[in-house]
Amino acid sequence: MKKLSLVILTVVTFLSCNKQEPVQFSQEALNDTFVTLTEQEVTLQSILNKHKGKTIVIDIWASWCSDCIKNMPKVKNLQAQFPDLEYVFLSLDRSLDSWKHGINKYQVTGDHYYLPNAKDCAFADFVNISWIPRYMVINKASEIVVFNVIEADDEKLLEAIKN
């Protein structure tokens, strides 16, 4: 019985350690469309191109999400501590009006985009959104170096932006 338990533990450990997080967005995710504050459609590729050569912190959030709002002070601390980074906010709000209202209400500063299809789109499928807030870091070489953290002060996120 001990041998079987050891084998199962080894297999589970091996499988969980080998799960690779992507370092590049899929073409489908890059082609997905978002809406700007001026209600123009843009692709994820164009959003990333706008910030090319810079470290980007992506915050996937919604104004109805209590955990997102609770994390906003941490995001603002991050912005104060690392003002040279690019901050891109991708909203899963239920409407354009609630999204714009949330930006103003919570004084969210950065580059803002709305996902009109929320969790039902190529971008959401690629990042496998299971919880928000969700933070990602894209380095200066346009590689995803943090794929999935849910706290703006997560050690993995902080380490990535310091490098």
Automatic annotation (TrEMBL):
One of its GO terms (biological process) is cytochrome complex assembly. The keyword Disulfide bond applies. GO terms for cellular component: cell envelope. Keywords: Cytochrome c-type biogenesis, Disulfide bond, Redox-active center. Its main location: other. Pfam families: Thioredoxin_8. It is found in: Cell envelope. SUPFAM superfamilies: Thioredoxin-like. Transmembrane segments: none annotated. This is TlpA family protein disulfide reductase. It comes from Neotamlana sargassicola.
